[in-house]
Amino acid sequence: MASPKVAVVGAGVIGLSTALCVTETCPSCSVTVLSDQFSPNTTSDVAAGMLIPHTYPDTPIHRQKQWFKDTFTYLFAISNSAEASEAGIHLVSGWQVFKSTPTEELPFWSDIVLGFRPMSEAELQKFPQHRFGQAFTTLKCDCPPYLLWLEKRLKAAGAQMYTRKVTDLWELHSEYDIVVNCTGMGSHQLVGDEQLFPVRGQVLKAHAPWVKHFIRDGDGLTYIYPGIHRVTLGGTREKGSWGLSPDPGTARDIFDRCCSLEPSLQGAQDIEVKVGLRPSRQCVRVQREVLSQGGVKLPVVHNYGHGAGGFSVHGGTANEAAHLVGECISALQGSSSRAKL
Amino acid sequence: MRVAVVGAGVIGLSSALCIHEQFHGLLPSLQLEVYAEHFTPHTTSDGAAGLWQPYLSDHGNLQETLWNKETFDHLLGHLHSPAAKEMGLFLISGYNLFTEPVPDPSWKNIVLGFRNLTPKELELFPGYSYGWFNTALMLEGRSYLPWLTNRLTQRGVKFFHKKVESFQEVSGDGVDVVLNCSGIRAGDLQPDPELQPGRGQVIKVLAPWVKHFIITHDLKSGIYSSPYVIPGSEFTVLGGIYQHGNWSEENSAKDHKFIWDSCCRLLPALQKAKIVGEWSGLRPARPSVRLERESIRLGSLQAEVIHNYGHGGFGITIHWGCAVAAARLFGTILQEKQQLGSPPGPRL
Fold it and tell me: Where is the FAD dependent oxidoreductase domain (chain B) (predicted)?
């Protein structure tokens, strides 16, 4: 197969990073990104983009750790380069604080982020309701800049991007040789994955440029993540809730919770409310599948179900998915050469 | 009781506030007046980035270390108050970078979370092999000085836009105590060969993705003559100039190039940052801060002067400790003039 035609469905952080990985691992491929939404209207645009991993119950820890490490290493290099501001990648330091001492003293990612250590008594004084804390430095992927930068790199690599709602992966079988499914929550409908469920997250985006640190409550519900221009204040984790409209009562509650962690947020301006549905699953689905109808086959690589941890592992899962695309290509080339015999 | 404060930078205004807070209740006749050639936003304090950080070594000057600590603790106490934003006060973390191992600084236990840098962190800064990470405070002069001015105005303190040429000028006018907070211009009031300008220049840029301060050190060339990047609430300050004895307040193209090139080497993403301003100022440098009383005989009159100047590149860092010390000296003066019933607080 001279120039395999690869369609990547989905243009959030997973779709764009996977598409870019495919252009790099398979330079002879023609890559097309198809999505009904592009930045700034993807779920990724709502997220803060903090590199603080979510733990997937059914993915082996060593695999999650490798994904996080790959992602962190790749973004660390960008943050240190002249492209950092355009790519929206920057370092941020801060604290994760707990009201009661966590069962797990050292998260699996503590040696991947920078300078991880327990907070001192003096540092904890800033959080009178919390008894234990961890200080570290990590990375943040600001969106839309990061997604727009990925789009720019994709175009430079010769990839095409089209706004198109794909209602059935099979509809792509005549135009493309391989389909990569990065549709996040869309996979619930698109591939009928009942294991995929939304975890609704509402956030506020505010102007508070004096806030230079992230603060996260270990319960994962309240967090303050300073981005380039706005601070993301969160949040909620409403399992099974599909509602995309912002709820004013929730907004008020988020604001109050964040102000109790960081009182200076009372002075925040230009507050916007956003909602996203975390495409959640017990384990991330990075997997090959072959769809077939009437003797015709369509290789599919799935890369979805990242839930609350999309940004944290996107580089690692993109690598894996691109590798699986490579396997699909080999399989196609194998079968096409067999056909010639 | 009339008190004239000469100078309206961070030292003058904070000393005035400290004195008024402590003594106005005890001495209702206390009348405070601030005289200055320059007011915010045209003072040296306004040009400074506003980072709380003393020099690397206190040279055995324990008193200054205590004043630094007093200032840090005082500011930390205000961090969660509703006034913090208006004061220009917020927490900031960052890096101090060296090309060789150095002893820990006198202020390591004053700041929060002081630690050495890990090898991974040092990868961010090629050319530097050792460093510190800590959390400190920012106190932006452009906000803090107006806040101090408002507090003083509320208390009935009067301001006069006037360059005071001599102590006689104010004392002869019926002023009982003069607080000399004239910074780099103190030599105009009373010659002081120990006071010299430490000229600095800074470039102000828009780089809101930078969340940490980064201060490099070249032990051979001296403090602040190596690039530094300090992100504020509105813009980021790039600097790295310290020229002892240079009185020029004009921006120098050569210094601009040095700052720009060296900071962009430190943080390549700065190349894309938009320049929004440039400023030069004279740090009022002195081997030690002059904080002491002096009785000046002027003809038949005796004026009490409290000197509080020579804070170099750490004025914001040390200001409150010095203001409290100046207020103590004021208390002693009041006692001597038998204006106060009870004795002043413990003397440092």
Answer: 2-329
